[in-house]
Amino acid sequence: MLTLLAGLILFFGVHSTRIFADDWRTAQIAKHGILKWKAVYALISLIGLWLIVVGYSASKAAPEVLWVAPVWSRHLAALLTLPAFILLVATYLPASRIKAKVGHPMLLAVKLWALAHLLANGTVAALLLFGSFLVWSVVNFAVSRRRDRRLGISRAQGTLKADILVIVVGLVLWKVFALYLHVALFGVKPFG
């Protein structure tokens, strides 16, 4: 469990600098340059992610169960991840109206993903992992939207064509992941 906690602290520590230390972050970028900042950020993120994966995997050997999730919660979780995949695709296709409306579709995708996995998993490790992602994404989404309003950021409205592409690609990725990759990577069949 300590490995999981260490990973979460590293991962969210670096991913929260814009939330809790934006002035410090800006000063570091000005002092060292954006490339060095991104390199350090990526390295700390990868180490944190690796520790999270190792720690969470180790917790499965002797899980501490808080509650037993009913079977229907797995199906609901799989369905909640559908819009998460669409929002994730919208993050990388800036011409969509979905991205323009949401502003930060990656954070909303993380919210849905974390909530879905909290519904379907009742262990202490799952609560730590998915609960921390949920709390972080809720806080970060609120802070990011507030910052956008303060800075007067407006996004291009996007097109229907881009929205259709986002939805189709999101649906295809969700289907491939739900039916094939999730079990291959994590040993769990969302619809099994």
UniProtKB/TrEMBL annotation:
Pfam families named in the record: NnrU
Location of the NnrU domain: 4-190
Record carries keyword Transmembrane helix: yes
InterPro entries: NnrU_dom
Subcellular location field: Membrane
Protein name: NnrU family protein
Main localization, broad class: membrane
Membrane topology (UniProt): Multi-pass membrane protein
Keyword set, alphabetical order: Membrane, Transmembrane, Transmembrane helix
Signal peptide: none
Taxonomy, superkingdom: Bacteria
Transmembrane segments: 37-56, 76-95, 115-143, 164-188
GO CC term (a single one): membrane
Keyword Amino-acid biosynthesis: no
